Amino acid sequence: MGLLIRHNLEGLPFEVFTEYDVTIKQNLLDFYVIRRKKVSSLSSLADGLNDLRKYNLISYKSFRESFNIEALEELVCYSILFRKDKARKDELLLPEKYVRVVALSTMKPVQILSEKKIKHKDLGGGAYNLQFGTVAVRLIVIQELPQTKAENGNFLLFSADEKQVKYGIGHNTLDGTTYNSLLLELLRRYKTEEGSMAELMKKLSKEEMFVGLLDLLDDKKQVLDRFAPEDRLESLSPKQLAQAIHSDKVRELFGDLPDNAKEALRALPARGLFGFSPKATETVKATSRER
Question: What is the value of pTM for the model shown?
């Protein structure tokens, strides 16, 4: 057939390639989730994810990205290639009943939901079923997830909506390490934005932003170790610094020093004394003895 096509196009400005690999360019799906065994219920998951299948292909669009028709076409193509890859020798494609295609979109994709060629059904709670050709896609709009359970709160942290983010901060199922990492990612994403989310980052107090974080961590030193000594000192008032300099902790650390060394240490700026590791403290003590 290739020879026939070449023959028909002879003398025309066309070039014919045979057995062309359409996957020659690397295509990366955001998330691929496989169910290792059947479970009786998935009600503990966020709304829209409680009917996952054996294979689940998930695309994610943040508030900076748009889940438009082109993005939908790309996701559908990924699903077709995936089903072809997983098919048995006697199958062209893995049956669709084994695959759930999910689009996680921060914003509501108005273009897609208003496109007459794309059938959709509103399932409620921010979840929609889209029918694009023969492929069914589960659309989950993060901003529309209801404030009904902590599992939704996990996703609402990245909703880019002030009220929803606040709910996510106070209602989530994340452990200490995961919560810490996600919160830092949240701050990184939002701090350079303009508009309501930038204002939210300014308005939220440290207590609100890190509510539950210290309680979830067994050792608060894990948090303090993330900051340089100078940064820790900047948060202290002169009165707090004065109290710290004359604290029992200081006397415990430097009680064995000669009186003249003690006076020299007291005369040092606060940043020359606090926030250092035990090794650094011993260096200070040794230097004072030599003097």
Answer: 0.66
